[in-house]
Amino acid sequence: MLNHLKRIINGDVPTAATEDLPPALSLVVIVYDMQVQAERTLLSLSPQYQEGVSESDYEVIVVENESANNLSRDFVERLPANFSYHLRAERESTPVHAVNHGVGISRGRYVCVMIDGARLVTPGVVKNILRGHRLHERSVVTVPGYHIGNQLQQTAVEQGYGVEQDQALIDSIAWPMEGYRLFEIACFSGSCVPGFFLPNSESNCISIPRDLWATLGGLDTRFDLRGGGLVNLDLYKRACEFPGVEHVMLLGEGTFHQFHGGVTTGGEAGQIRDALIEKMKAQYIQIRGYPYESPRGNPVYLGECPVQVMRFIEYSSARALASQEGNASAPAATRLSAQG
């Protein structure tokens, strides 16, 4: 590889040959029945939105499980050159097979899984994922998760929150012109409610070296419940706890869940949703032999911290200090409203 790079620098290799080099990073984005939200997500992953990177640095593999609400042909044809689109007729209600398929056809040295295509990302995600992988040969790089709105969407939906309110909030910050203003209209997602400095349950943007992905065996296909059950949490735990791994968290970046009637954040009756979650927990125990617990460890925090993220740092610090002191009066997530 070194000799090949020297040949490129010296001009001994035709330009066309350099274009065949694989990108450093492959992002695999799973889409199902979320046309409007997925279009915004893919815009947030485009080279025009992402800062400090070019098309050649990364690829985006869009895998859509067929529904009555697919991405339009016109939109797909206008995707950037470093994007590819793959429509599948999935027979099961889990995204596990779509993820494994997407990783299987990707080319990057690192693979980043976004199991939910309804998540907007901030402009430094790709640049800082690549930075994170340069820190250690086995870095697992994760991005914290948020919900658009001032409370968890599974709670907000019971008070009338829906797609229209979601759209209004996004419009209110002139997105996508100022990507970091997403923090102004968001709260931590349920899996990240403990904050930055206490264990989280998952990341909806997790990047793993390809050889580690192979060692882990990809996503476990036994997670066959609707939405994949706890499969994304399982990947997060197995990757972060793998021996020799350096967990790198991108403190100043985020993924922001758009309301779309998702499995655990949609408009189903609370009792139905709670029953499904209990079923997911039971399946995890059946597969792994013990209840799910967030992985422990001391992440390396990386990246710039825009002013909009400071209130989340303050909240996270208060939670961590209260936990260390055994104080039961740690700030509640509901206090971290979109109004600050």
Task: Describe the protein in words.
The protein has helices at 2-9, 15-18, 35-44, 73-77, 96-105, 125-135, 153-156, 163-172, 210-216, 231-240, 270-288, 310-324; strands spanning 25-31, 58-65, 83-88, 110-114, 119-121, 139-142, 145-148, 186-188, 206-209, 246-250, 255-257, 300-302. The protein is an alpha/beta fold and 340 residues long. It has one domain (7-327): Spore Coat Polysaccharide Biosynthesis Protein SpsA, Chain A (Alpha-Beta Complex). Helix 4 links the parallel strand 2 (58-65) and strand 3. The longest helix has 19 residues, at 270-288. Residues 1-18 and 333-340 have low confidence and may be disordered.
Question: What is shown here, in short?
Answer:
With 340 residues, the protein is an alpha/beta fold. It is built from twelve helices and twelve strands. One of its GO terms (molecular function) is transferase activity.
